[in-house]
Amino acid sequence: MVRTTHLMGELESILLATDASEQSKGAAQEAVFTALECQAKLYILYVRTYYPEIPESLSKALEEGIPEETKNFLEKVRDMVTKEGGEAEIIIRDHPEAWRAIVEEAEKLNTDLIITGKRGRTGLKKLFMGSVTEKVVGYAPCKVMVVPKGVKIHGETILVATDGSYYAKKAEKEALSMGKRCSTLKRILALSVAKREEDLPRASKILEAFRELAQEEKLPPRVKLETIEVVGNPANMIVKVAQDEGADLILMGEYGVSGLEKFIMGSTTEKVIGLSKNSAILVVK
Ligand SMILES: Nc1ncnc2c1ncn2[C@@H]1O[C@H](COP(=O)(O)OP(=O)(O)O)[C@@H](O)[C@H]1O
Ligand SMILES: [Mg+2]
């Protein structure tokens, strides 16, 4: 059961946010693997939502209890960890807004990573990603890994997308630190997308700086570092290169403009999460 990737390195605790939907099963699987690999405690959080404007909706939810299949799912996830000797705990919260409860729990428990599905029960096609995921990525106090349905992270090739910004640099550092810690990691692809031909030299500079950083950080020779600069639409290119190169994890920074609800995360990050079907996305904060 235990895989031998060590992608996330030293994590003390992980918060899996799950609505027990089909869509969120990949996230649960990755959470179990990551918790076992990293000997991190796994908190499995299910938020039972209600409408605060309708007081009866809470008492109704309480009365009805947690659906049997949801309970079974949560217990199954927990047991997958505990049977292998790991530590896991189910947390059930009642809250009008799932994302708020998830962010609050991450703060309270001081978790190092939140793992969510890309979509959930509602699965509205017109939305890039589920609204809970979107808000969690934007407001989380720690890294967030978004796992699209059915994605498995083998962790041989990872891609870090960088525009040289403050947050992207954090993602760069995370990629290098994974390179050092994770014995299965073979390739780090660093991608910088120039929107126009004339921006290419800037992209090259960003990647040059990344190569220098890799040297400073003493990336072991086992890990091959490849840098790619291309012209195109950033989100489309990031997803395409990840797909073509078989990178099952994309690292990105989030550059949220504080205060504006509308811009809770950078639009490239949001689009990549929306477009990605075969890679998980780690949003580094
Ligand atoms: N009630 C909830 N409790 C815990 N996690 C949730 C809850 N609702 C959603 N999530 C998390 O957010 C992910 C995306 O769900 P969501 O944003 O609600 O999408 P959708 O609109 O498709 O339902 C889920 O896979 C799950 O990880
Ligand atoms: Mg939902």
TrEMBL record:
UspA domain mapped to chain residues: 13-148, 157-282
InterPro entries in the record: Rossmann-like_a/b/a_fold, Universal_stress_UspA, UspA
Pfam families assigned: Usp
Top-rank taxon: Bacteria
Family, as annotated: Belongs to the universal stress protein A family.
Protein's name according to its UniProt entry: Universal stress protein
Organism: Thermodesulfatator atlanticus
Taxonomic lineage: Bacteria, Pseudomonadati, Thermodesulfobacteriota, Thermodesulfobacteria, Thermodesulfobacteriales
